[in-house]
Amino acid sequence: MSIDFKDISVVIQGPVQAYQGRSQEPGITHKCIASIRTHLPGATIILSTWEGQDCHGLNPDILLLNKDPGATIVSYNAKGEPGKLNFNRQIVSSAEGLKQVTTPYAVKIRSDNFLTSNDFVAAQQAFPARNDASKLFTQKVVTNTSYFRRYADGQKIVMLPSDFFHFGLTEDLLKIWDIPLFPDREFDPTKAGSPQYRGAPKVGPHAEQIYCNAWLRKLDSTVPYLQHRHQNSPELLAYWERFIASNLVVLEPEQIGLGLIQRFIPKSKRPNEICHQDWLLLYKQYCDPSIAISKFDIFKTIGWKRMCKLPFSYIKHQLTQIKK
Q: Does the pLDDT at position 260 exceed 80?
């Protein structure tokens, strides 16, 4: 079944100007909108941003000026100074935009990314096999390998998908983004003088892990609360890999047709990130044994780099923990 572009809405979420803590390439949101008009003619464009943002010259079909929830306090350092991340800004701009969608399919894209093709539309249905016991989405959701990490500090980790780009059924994207806002972390005076954050004194989860853990626990009550970055077990890793194979289609940016601004483009593929071949191997293992992919195929591209770099990353992390 082919998907007609008129059955797709594109939610562009985030700021269209720089603000404190978030730089912005001038004119990038104009470029994003123009690229959608070029590569998805007939699709509905929804720009979901903040009150006070200068949207002059932008021409989305729907413009949402959300009330800015502000940055979220997620930590305190030893001096009691708060650390903030844009958790709720991303949730509000994504979820409120998706709630305006009336088409069966939707794209969620950052306001500082853009399209270079529409290849992701066909790719969404190119891998139909599922592991029935692991299905949490109605259909597959296409996502991006950039910042989709399989390793951190030389160790395999779980629940760290990229949040740059999603394409799939609107109902499935809402499963990811329509989650409760995160409350500010309250300062605990009994822990004054020590860092306070989720998982302390172990290494805290990455922001993407915290997002993913929240929506995955909403979909499946058996998923544990992720206390720290490296929390893992053979059972949890297998669960995460089955989920990836059965519910996602993980593609390189060029396979999606996703354009990234310069600061997101590495000089070479990062060994700690998933690659499309990694995902294909999981898809073969859990969904479709007929897929032609092997571990040696991965070794020839990114595997040998991992063998060289990951052990050093692990040793460096262990030494850092000892110094603490």
A: yes
The pLDDT tens digits for 198-243 are 999 999 999 999 999 999 999 999 999 999 999 999 999 999 999 9
* Residues facing residue 10 across a β-bridge: 45, 107
- In sequence order, the 6+-apart residues with CB closer than 8 A to the CB of 77 are 83, 195
Structural domains counted in the chain:
1
Of 13, 29, 292, nearest to 166 (Cα)?
A: 13
Query: DSSP assignment, residue 301?
Result: I
Q: What is the sign, positive or negative, of the torsion defined by CA atoms of 218, 224, 225, 229?
A: negative
* Closest by CA position to 256, among listed 105, 96, 145, 137: 145
Question: How many angstroms separate the CA atoms of 176 and 169, rounded?
Answer: 11
Rounded distance between C-alpha atoms, residue 173 and residue 169, angstroms: 6
What SS3 class is residue 20?
coil
Q: Which domain holds residue 241?
A: 5-323
